[in-house]
Amino acid sequence: MTAMDATLPAPVRALAQADFSAVARSFGDAGFTVAEPADGILTIRRPGSVRPAVVLSVGVHGDETGPIELTAYLLDALAREPDKLAVDLMVCVGNIGAIRAGKRFIDADLNRMFRVERGALAGTAEAARADVMIAATVAFFADAGPQRWHLDLHTAIRPSVYPTFAIVADLIEPGAKRALVSWMGEAGIGAIVMNPESVGTYSFYSAEHHGAAGTTVELGRIGTLGQNDLTQFAQASRALDRLLRGEPAPADVAMPRVYKVARNIIKLSDGFTMAFGKDTQNFTSLRRGDEIARDGDTVYTVQHDEELVVFPNPDVRIGLRAGLMVTRAD
Ligand SMILES: [Zn+2]
C-alpha cells in the first residue's frame, strides 16, 4: 500500500515518487548532461557554457504538496521544449520518505538539519537525508558560475495576513539580493523577512555556503497532493517559468513588503507556553508590552512599538524556534 493516489496526473505522481525518468530522457535526448546524484535529485546542465545555476527544492516538508504539483507541471512543459531551459537546474524533492508516507516528516523537521550542530537529532532519518541533499548541492554549485539561486518552495500550515511570503538570508550579496527580491515581487510574494542567522534551513545553507540567492518561499495553504488549488500558485509559477527560460524580467512589479527579524523565540523547557496558539495567523501584529511567551520564570514581551509573529508553534521540540518576531524594515 502506498499513500500515493493512483488517479494523480502522471507528471505529479512521477515527481512525488521522485521518478524523473520521463524528464531526464527528454533533456538527455536534447543534448543536456542529466544526472540523478541521489534519490529524488535531478541535475540538468548544458555542457560547455556558464549559465545561471538554479536549485529548485520542493517537499522539504512532506505534507506541503502544492509546490510539487506546480513544479511537476513546469518541468513537464519544459521537457516538451527542452532547448528553452536557459539555466543549469537542480530539482530536489526533499523529504521523499515523508512524501511517500503522506507525512510532514518521519522523525524530525528536515528544514532544521542544514547545520553542523544537530544534537539529539543526529540519528534521525532527516539528518541522513540532509547529508544526501548537502552532498548533491555541494557538487551542483562546485562548478557553477556567479549567478546562483536556491528557491525552496513550501506552503504555510496556518493562515497568513500575507498569503505568500518568504524568508531571505540577509547575508546574500546585495546585487543578487536585489534580483531575488525583484523576482519575488514578480512571483506575487507579499512580504519578505530578512533573516540574519540560520535555524538550519536548506535555503540559508545554500546562501551561506554556496553564495546562492537563497530563500524559503511560503506559497499559499497546505493541501492534499492532486487536490491543491493551483490558482493560488499561478503568479509564482509564471515567475519561475520565466526564470528557468531566461526570459527578460517584467519592468515594473509590485515589491514585497520587507520585514527584519527582531527576535527568535526559542523553546527552552517543557514549561514553555505561548500567549497565542499555533493557529494564529502569520504576521499577526502585537504591540509593545504584549506578552509573547513564558518559559519557566522568563516572560517574553514585545520590545518594539509593533512586532509581528511568524511561524508561532509552541509544540516544537526543546531548543527549536517556537516563533519568529519581525518588525517593518521598509
Ligand atoms: Zn514547509
Automatic annotation (TrEMBL):
InterPro entries: AspA/AstE_fam (IPR050178), AstE_AspA_cat (IPR055438), Aste_AspA_hybrid_dom (IPR007036), SuccinylGlu_desuccinylase (IPR016681). This is Succinylglutamate desuccinylase. Its cofactor is Zn(2+). Residues 256-328 form the AstE/AspA barrel-sandwich hybrid domain. Residues 52-242 form the Succinylglutamate desuccinylase/Aspartoacylase catalytic domain. It catalyses: N-succinyl-L-glutamate + H2O = L-glutamate + succinate. Zn(2+) binds at residues 61, 64, 154. It comes from Pseudoduganella plicata.
